[in-house]
Amino acid sequence: MKANVGGIDKTLRIIVGLIVLALYFVIEGPAKNWALLGLVPLLTGVLNFCPLYTLLGINTCPMNKT
């Protein structure tokens, strides 16, 4: 797994992931489980790797560009 997420992209993924996960504690009923989808952007931001970026050939990590 080569890093393909970097900079602003990484920061935004972590912030959005944390905000969506926080909704888990605010929303009532069965809809609150949808807030667990916040794990996806949070983990891709923390791990610096997005599988979808690999499929699309996108790379926002400045260290990998040659």
List keywords for this structure.
single chain, 66 residues, mainly alpha, 3 helices
The DSSP helix count reads 3
Q: Over the alpha carbons, how many angstroms does the gyration radius reach?
A: 14 Å
Helix content, binned percent: 40-55%
Low-confidence stretches: none
Structural class: mainly alpha
Q: For the record, give the distance between the C-alpha atoms at the N and C termini, rounded to a whole number.
A: 17 Å
Instruction: Note the run of SSEs as H and E.
Output: HHH
Q: For the report, how would you describe the main beta sheet?
A: none
Shape: elongated
In percent terms, what proportion of residues is strand?
Answer: under 5%
Mean pLDDT: 93
What's the total count of β strands?
A: 0
Can you walk me through this structure?
With about 70 residues, the protein is mainly α. Helix content is about 45%, strand content about 0%. It is built from 3 helices and no strands. It has helices at about 10-20, 40-45, 50-55. Helix 1 runs antiparallel to helix 2 (about 40-45). It is elongated and about 40 Å long. The mean pLDDT is about 95.
Characterize this entry briefly:
This protein is mainly alpha-helical and 66 residues long.
Show the helix and strand layout:
Elements: H1 8-22, H2 39-47, H3 51-56
Helix pairs in contact: 1-2
